[in-house]
Amino acid sequence: MPSSPASGCPNRVKHRNLVDAAIGGWFAGRDRDRALKVRREAGATVGPIYSIADIAADPRFAEREIVIDIEDDQFGSLPMHNIPPRLAATPAVWRRPAPGLGEQRSETLEAADIDPAILIAEVAA
User: Fold this and answer.
1) Which residue from 28, 69, 111, 125 puts its CA 20 to 30 A from 56's CA?
2) Could you tell me the maximum CA-CA distance found in the chain, to the nearest angstrom?
3) Contact 37, 48 (CB under 8 A)
4) Are 39 and 46 within 8 A, CB to CB?
């Protein structure tokens, strides 16, 4: 008996386009809550795919500080994904904002052993 494209991990990987189409088609025919309920009742490990609006409305995201506000010189306060993982003994911290466009150009070129004058001449050519 030939094996199914979905039988065993190697076959699922080899035929992932077929498996993805079958699973995607099944989910597309149901609303999110119903699809999740049916799959969970069948013993599958599933969860919803969140939109930004879902994330903003979910109190667990706020409680876990997954999205935080970061100060930006140009735009003021911006929501941003927090640093994962946040470990108790060695917590990550925001040290500085991202550099502005071109702000670290000289240091980057120097570290790569590139003469900025040659680079500028090649770009202009």
Assistant:
1) 28
2) 68
3) no
4) yes
pLDDT for the residue 1:
40
What single letter denotes the amino acid at residue 77?
A: S
* E strand spans, 3-66: none
Tokens for 11, please give them. 């076959």
Q: Check pLDDT > 50 for residue 31.
A: yes
What's the CA gap between 54 and 58, in Å, rounded?
6
User: For a pLDDT cut of 90, what percent of the chain falls above it?
Assistant: 38
pLDDT tens per residue across span 96-116: 777 888 888 888 888 998 888
State the DSSP H helix or E strand holding residue 72, giving kind and residue range, or none if neither.
strand 67-72
Mean pLDDT of 78-83: 89
Q: Which of 23, 17, 21 is nearest to 46 (CA)?
A: 23
Q: Would you call 26 helix, strand, or coil by DSSP?
A: helix
Ordered DSSP codes for 56-122: HH-HHHHHTT-EEEEEETTTEEEEEEPPSP--SSS-----SPPPPTTTTHHHHHHHTT--HHHHHHH
